[in-house]
Amino acid sequence: MSRPANVVAADLGGTTIKAARFNAQGVAEETLRLATPSSEGPAAVVAAVVRVAAALVRPRTAAIGLCAPGLIDAGAGVVRFAANLGLHDTPLAAGVRARLRLPVALEHDVRAACLAEQRLGASANADDLLVVVLGTGVAAGIVSNGRIVRGAQGFAGEFGHIPVHADGELCACGQRGCLEAYASASALVRRYRRAGGNAAGAAGSTARLDTDPRAARLWAEGTDALGRALVTSTVLLDHQRIVLAGGMTAAGEALADPVRRTLQRGLTWRAAPPVSISPLGADAGLLGAALRAMDAAGGPVPPTRQVTAARDEERTCGTA
Ligand SMILES: [Zn+2]
After folding, report:
1. 240 Cα–ligand 1 center, Å
2. CA of 320 to the centre of ligand 1 (A)
């Protein structure tokens, strides 16, 4: 029987590696977390991934799926550059494969989240989809004609650097007026502090929307910038649906509603595609990595929404 018994997936973040083992029905059986030793060099990061994956691998594990931020060469399994992980031209998939002797797939974290949204989310099986991940930065996964778009050099989806205001705020990329300089969690905090507020985070500024006019104005400018950028991508690609994901979606309709209005206002001659908040939450990248592992194992794609992370069983690697 070729059906895989289980797969192991890991989502590498700048501070934490989240990992889980998923059974053939796509249900997470065990979840682990480990601090990412980003400052200790590539060998330490690869060793940490091996350690957390090894703790989850069982005799019938068929493959391992990984996702990471930065510039990812998915075909070669190499992290070309990931500043937050301290990796440069690191053959991550080969490093894990050599130690654990299993097929290993590597995917960009935003594209992994996009894959999970496409196969498991509210927009299941949409052929033309945009998934915008709003966190410290802003990036997007694009599905066009049923395929995830990577671009000529693998740089597709740098949605945060779409210019929305000529001569606007300076962005970390060196350009002015980028979406990310208005609509990311870090931009909201920076702009709120500059306006004299004491920001604890993007969630802090949304909590003050009703009571602090500065927070309300900066939030409105952020959602307006996002709506404008979505006008640009919609006229270019004609999305079937737009999904908002990432930490900022904790704001729910306070985020989605003004974005929908700006988007529809900017699309004078056509209806706007529906805009929804991701139902997959912070686990989307991990779920996408699990789907890549299932692909690598040649196994079945689990039915819609059956892949779920078992938060209750979460424990820290090495302590339980
Ligand atoms: Zn930029």
Report:
1. 26
2. 42
